[in-house]
Design a protein that fits this description.
By secondary structure, the chain is mainly alpha-helical. The protein has six helices and two strands; from the N terminus they run αααααββα.
Length: about 190
């Protein structure tokens, strides 16, 4: 998804920082939380690699095939039957979006920094993914403002410090959803 200059670098730094935080979170977690953090780290680093500006590195076609294979394996892993149904659907959609973008780039799609005249991907699929990630971002954003916990059937507002893990995890997920929107828009 090589982007033009500054926006490509900013997107790369955001995704790499998110991936690095998820690796740290993975190291400190266990069980399902560790798996989720690992999947999010893979997504963050994969998105960072895809957004390196084309002036620095132009990916050969086989590079996109490797992306599709890696995220295909991650999607298969996320689809496996689990005891929890919440977060893994989002991981599947994210992996499928990465596969879709990699295939679009491998089949000749271009990104603004490569000439900007050709389009990559199928507009209907791109549109559906844009709608999904927009809705995800719009639903997730307000949750950062007022974290809620259910206690005894009622809602209790929990005051968290800005750097606490309960604030950073949703912020990382939101930043990756917004980065995915930027990448899809530029496809």
């Amino acid at each position: 998804m090589h982007g033009p200059g500054m926006s490509g670098w900013l997107l790369m730094v955001l995704c790499a920082a998110t991936g690095a935080y998820c690796l740290v979170r993975m190291r400190r977690s266990s069980g399902r939380a560790r798996e989720a953090a690992g999947a999010e780290a893979l997504m963050g680093f994969g998105m960072a690699a895809m957004s390196v500006p084309a002036t620095v590195f132009t990916s050969p076609r086989w590079h996109w095939v490797v992306y599709a294979a890696v995220f295909g394996a991650a999607a298969v892993r996320a689809v496996r039957p689990r005891r929890h149904a919440g977060r893994h659907l989002h991981h599947v959609v994210g992996c499928l979006a990465m596969i879709y973008m990699a295939v679009a780039m491998a089949t000749g799609g271009t990104y603004g920094g490569h000439g900007g005249h050709a389009t990559g991907g199928v507009p209907v699929v791109t549109g559906a993914l844009l709608v999904y990630f927009t809705v995800y971002a719009l639903r997730s954003g307000p949750q950062l403002l007022i974290p809620l916990a259910t206690v005894g059937g009622g809602a209790l507002v929990i005051q968290t410090s800005p750097g606490s893990p309960s604030t950073l995890v949703p912020a990382c997920r939101l930043s990756m959803a917004i980065a995915m929107l930027a990448m899809l828009l530029a496809l």
